[in-house]
Structure formats: structure tokens, C-alpha cells
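testing teh design pipeline on a random one, pls ignore if ur not involved
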């Protein structure tokens, strides 16, 4: 047997990681500006994280949701306080995609409706329902296309209102910042508009914060820059710093009933311990504030580079758009010891480092980008046909 070959892989084999650095099997060190799809939040092998998981594993690694688990109660209380949602409820799953799936189910249960409105460029996961609301046809099979979903342009108020007027929409689903699309932001006033329109038409507002949450943008959730309070919030990725965990934060007006949701592994003892340790490290080291400061510095420095079209995003969720595809640029950066990400926009380089990345490390990224961009420019000049007058 062999692995099912569906991933385009970068040609390195990490064997050890600490903080913002990866070490491969050849002893080469890399500076991680991608965090494994924004998963590494407080840093690779953070001592608080490692110690907590080791201690929990020595006692009890797993039992299902058929017994009392005080760690779930502790996590719900602490997460509620730190995130600014102490009155909400928490349902734990294993991934961001599952979180989206369950949030949409809750919206449908609560409203009695099934239609979902979401946005061009959206990515919400790879399970059946989350794929149905993902704006990429090549990911969807025939099994995923029967859901009632309307895709509308981001930041288009009229398009949203026209969908909501029939009062048959269960949920409007939007990312705090669109990640896979190339770090594309809904405007603050558009998010405020969605909150008002959804309330007017009896529709649930669902914020997908799987990639943009857990402090990445300088606030706990990206939507908090717009000062709104959606009914449902989905989480994943940086929530567990590498441990597979996801969750849905649920408005108090949505009442639970036995059996309406369920997950064998969701909220297990190790998962809860992982998230609690992430929150502990994040608060102890002021990582949200650091993400805001370091991200603003990175954005200003990146904007000064030659050949860029635009730098987008907030905090440490940044997209750098060039006038050319970034595939070769990423390879050259990897050769220089810098790990970065791509997006569905071939011209966008994604920057999603651990929140503990430093100003000095940002300067290293800028330095290596300048080196690589010079190489690309020289290659273009050397391979261009001679000018003829």
C-alpha cells in the first residue's frame, strides 16, 4: 500500500521543529512563515503545550463523550472569557471543516430552513456540506452539489439582500478573512451590514474563523475588528497548535437537544488539553498583541518591495500579490530557507507564521525576498529576446 497521491508537496522532510524553525532530515533549518496552513499558532513544540499534553497522556489520553469530562467545562469557560463570548456555548469537533458542517446544521435546525448564502472565493473545508459552500468546482463531486447554496460577490450588499428577501435562507456564511482566495477581506462595514440584514430576515450569521481566528489578526477573531457578534463562529487550525481539533461557538438563543450533534473524538481529553495550553501560552506571552504589532511591521516592509501589486490582510495573516505566478518564487524562497504558502490565486504568496514570529525574523523574510526577486528579475532579463529598434 502507498499514500493516496493528492497533495502537491514541497521537497523537504521536517523531522524537528522549535518555535518558528523547522529542521529537515538533512540538517537544513527553515524559517516557518506558513505554519502548516496557519495551524501552528503559539510556535512549534512550545514547552507549555508539550508539557501539558505529555502530562495528560500519562493520565488519560481518551474517552468518548459518554462520560463526564471536566476539561470540556474548563475549556468552554476559559475560551469564553478570552474570546469575549462568555455567554456562548461550545461544541467541539476534530477539524475546521467539521465545525462548519455542524454550524450549518445548527443554523438549519434553528431556522427550519436549508438554503445558505456564501461568497465568491470562499473555502470552508472538504467534508460534504463544507465543500458545497466552497467556491471551487474542481473540489466538488456529484455527491456535494445538491445542497441549496447561493454564491454572491464579496462586499456586495445588493446581492446579499436579494437572496435574503425571500426569507428562506438559514445562514449567511463568511470567512473573517478569505484565506485560500489569497487573503481577501470583507470590509468592516460589510460585516456590520450582514449582521443587521441577517437579524432583519431571521437568518443566522455564521463566521468562519478557522484560519483567521485564535489571535492571528491581532484580535481573537477577525470579525471583532468590525465589532459584530455573529450567532455561530467556527474554529480550527491554530486552535490546537497541531493537535486536530475544531469547534463551534453557539449563541445562547440556540438551544441544545440530545442527539442533535455528536462526535466520537470531539472534545477528547488530549484535544481539550491542547487548546487550554494554547490559550495559556497565548495570554502569558501577549501573542495577540505581538501578532498585531509584528504584522503591521511586516505589512509596511513588504509594501516597500519592488514588483508587488498589493499586500493584504491583518496581523499575521497576509497575502502578497505579485504581477506573476509565485510558484518559482516559493521554490527559490525554500532554497533560501524560508517556508511560505500559496493560494487559489496563483499570483499570491501567503504569510501565516506562528504568532511568536519576531521583527528580526520578518527582516530575514524581507531580505530573502529581495534576493529572490532580484534573481527572478535577472532571469527574465537574461532570457528576454534582444531589443530591436
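output:
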Amino acid at each position: 500500500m502507498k499514500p493516496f497521491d493528492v497533495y502537491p508537496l514541497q521537497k523537504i522532510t521536517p523531522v524537528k521543529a522549535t518555535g518558528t524553525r523547522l529542521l529537515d532530515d538533512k540538517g537544513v533549518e527553515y524559517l516557518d512563515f506558513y505554519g502548516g496552513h496557519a495551524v501552528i499558532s503559539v510556535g512549534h513544540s512550545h514547552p507549555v503545550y508539550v508539557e501539558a499534553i505529555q502530562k495528560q497522556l500519562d493520565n488519560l489520553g481518551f474517552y468518548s463523550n459518554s462520560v463526564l469530562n471536566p476539561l470540556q467545562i474548563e475549556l468552554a469557560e476559559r475560551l469564553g472569557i478570552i474570546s469575549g463570548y462568555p455567554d456562548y456555548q461550545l461544541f467541539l469537533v476534530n477539524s475546521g471543516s467539521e465545525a462548519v458542517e455542524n454550524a450549518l446544521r445548527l443554523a438549519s435546525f434553528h431556522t427550519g430552513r436549508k438554503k445558505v448564502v456564501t461568497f465568491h472565493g470562499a473555502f470552508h473545508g472538504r467534508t460534504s456540506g463544507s465543500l458545497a459552500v466552497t467556491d471551487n468546482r474542481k473540489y466538488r463531486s456529484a455527491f456535494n452539489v445538491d445542497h441549496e447554496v447561493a454564491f454572491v460577490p464579496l462586499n456586495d450588499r445588493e446581492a446579499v439582500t436579494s437572496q435574503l428577501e425571500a426569507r428562506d435562507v438559514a445562514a449567511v456564511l463568511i470567512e473573517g478573512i478569505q484565506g485560500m482566495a489569497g487573503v481577501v477581506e470583507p470590509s468592516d462595514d460589510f460585516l456590520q451590514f450582514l449582521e443587521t440584514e441577517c437579524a432583519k430576515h431571521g437568518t443566522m450569521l455564521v463566521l468562519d474563523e478557522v484560519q483567521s481566528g485564535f489571535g492571528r489578526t491581532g484580535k481573537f477573531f477577525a470579525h471583532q475588528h468590525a465589532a459584530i457578534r455573529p450567532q455561530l463562529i467556527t474554529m480550527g487550525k491554530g486552535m490546537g497548535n497541531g493537535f486536530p481539533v475544531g469547534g463551534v461557538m453557539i449563541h445562547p438563543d440556540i438551544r441544545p437537544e440530545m442527539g442533535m450533534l455528536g462526535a466520537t473524538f470531539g472534545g477528547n481529553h488530549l484535544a481539550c488539553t491542547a487548546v487550554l495550553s494554547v490559550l495559556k501560552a497565548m495570554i502569558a506571552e501577549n501573542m495577540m498583541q505581538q501578532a498585531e504589532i509584528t504584522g503591521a511591521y511586516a505589512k509596511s516592509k513588504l509594501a516597500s518591495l519592488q514588483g508587488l501589486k498589493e499586500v493584504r490582510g491583518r496581523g499575521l495573516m497576509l497575502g502578497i500579490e505579485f504581477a506573476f505566478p509565485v510558484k518559482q518564487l516559493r521554490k527559490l524562497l525554500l532554497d533560501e530557507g524560508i517556508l511560505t504558502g500559496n493560494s487559489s490565486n496563483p499570483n499570491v504568496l501567503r504569510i501565516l507564521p506562528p504568532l511568536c514570529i519576531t521583527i528580526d525574523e520578518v527582516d530575514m523574510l524581507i531580505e530573502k525576498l529581495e534576493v529572490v526577486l532580484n534573481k527572478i528579475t535577472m532571469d527574465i532579463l537574461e532570457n528576454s529576446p534582444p531589443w530591436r529598434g
